[in-house]
Amino acid sequence: FGSWVVAPAFNLRRVARVMEIKNEEAASLNLHDTNEDLVDKIMYDALVWSSLHGLVVGDRNHQRSGAVPGVGMVHAPFALLPVSFPESQWKHACEVAPIFNELIDRVSLDGKFLQDALSRTKKVDAFTSRLLDIHGKMMELNKKEDIRLGLHRSDYMLDEQTKLLLQIEFNTISSSFPGLSCLVTRLHRYLIQVYGDNLGLDAQRIPENSATTKFAEALAKAWKEYNNPKAVVLIVVQPGERNMYDQHWLFSVLRERHNVTAIRKTLSEIHADGQLLPDGTLLIQGAVVAVIYFRAGYTPTDYPSESEWQARSLMEESSAVKCPSISYHLAGTKKIQQELAKPHVLERFLEDKEDVEKIRKCFAGLWSLEDADIVEKAIKNPEFFVMKPQREGGGNNIYGEDMRESLLRLRKEKSEEDAAYILMQRIFPSVVPTFLIRDGICYKEHAVSELGIYGAYLRSKETVIMNEKCGYLMRTKVSSSNEGGVAAGFAVLDSIYLS
Ligand code: ADP
Ligand code: MG
Ligand code: MG
Question: Could you tell me which CATH number the domain at 83-364+427-498 has?
Answer without folding.
Answer: 3.40.50.1760
